[in-house]
Amino acid sequence: xxxxxxxQFKSIFQTNETPEVFFAPGRINLIGEHTDYNGGHxxxxxxxxxxxxxxxxxxxxxxxxxxxxxxxxAIIECPLNRLDYxxxxxxxxxxxxxxxxxxxxxxxxxxxxxxxxxxxxxNGAGLSSSASIEMATGVLLEEFFALNIDRVAMIELGxxxxxxxxxxxxxxxxxxxxxxxxxxxxxxxxxxxxxxxxAPIKLDNHVIIIMNTNKKRTLAGSKYNExxxxxxxxxxxxxxxxxxxxxxxxxxELFLSHQQLITNEINRKRAxxxxxxxxxxxxxxxxxxxxxxxxxxxxxNASHQSLKDDYEVTGIELDxxxxxxxxxxxxxxxxxxxxxxxxxxIAIVEKEQQxxxxxHVNDIYQxxxxxxxxxxxxxxxxxxxxxxxxxxx
Length: 393
Ligand code: GLA
Description:
alpha+beta; 6-stranded mixed sheet; Ribosomal Protein S5, domain 2
């Protein structure tokens, strides 16, 4: 159950002042994985799990951060003019990074703040808790300092914090989904142009089930940056004959007729995933428009296979979960979601079958992996925004 955030805020920061409350969701990605930094399309949606940022402005220049998720870290404090990355500040580097990035752009962030964070996104599950903290901080700063900042600019800033301040070379998908999410809609984003459109997710008698492998993953320590470099190398080789800026510009046919330009077999597989996954994402949108859920599910399954064989980012936990899910009655499709290397998968399942589904999948998973998976029903929610304090309780 969600703690009483206002009371917690007052007691932790020893104040009677009522703080303001902001919320940024986490995200799932329906299809289009590892395509964002390859100039392709993604199809994510914001979910109802997310991060609350509860804050007030201070009269001085002190910044104080506290997370109810990491109480052992206590209050993390730093002055407004010392925002460099500091290892000992741990999770608080995300809000610090956002404040610094905005200041560098010339935004007038002139006073200190007390901010309490609370997230109900399962930790390390690959549902974008870090981008959620960034965007929750972003909307708080926007309101406190009347920033008048374009939402896409804030999204790009979040990505910049991740890339340059935290040191993870991630694409734009997470911040975009979290910044732009819309209830009951997924968002088709062209990551090259940042053109996007919303697609209503009407699943009739189906639900989206998030399946957590409970295998923790850390992006920074993972092979994420390596995959990105492999794609860049493949692109450079293709550019010897093709005038393209990204792998996302290639059709499957064009890729097949030029793939021999990529000298390293592993890099060729990585590029093949980026190209075919982008095509699958576009086809998935069409399938959804046509109300063809079966075709959508088949594309999800094919996406997982490609992430397993060509991109090699799944691992035994995700594969066990997804393969078990795909075999169950009433399942339209299943795939890993997010960066991979552990974290979560999703499945579209007939409502009536959801309990049996969870039970059977968990049995298979537990038997093979030695510990259980966790299941949540995803509800597709709005993007980052201020919420009324009275609605927080
Ligand atoms: C992580 C990154 C995203 C994206 C996905 C894979 O979530 O933050 O930018 O690359 O992995 O699709």
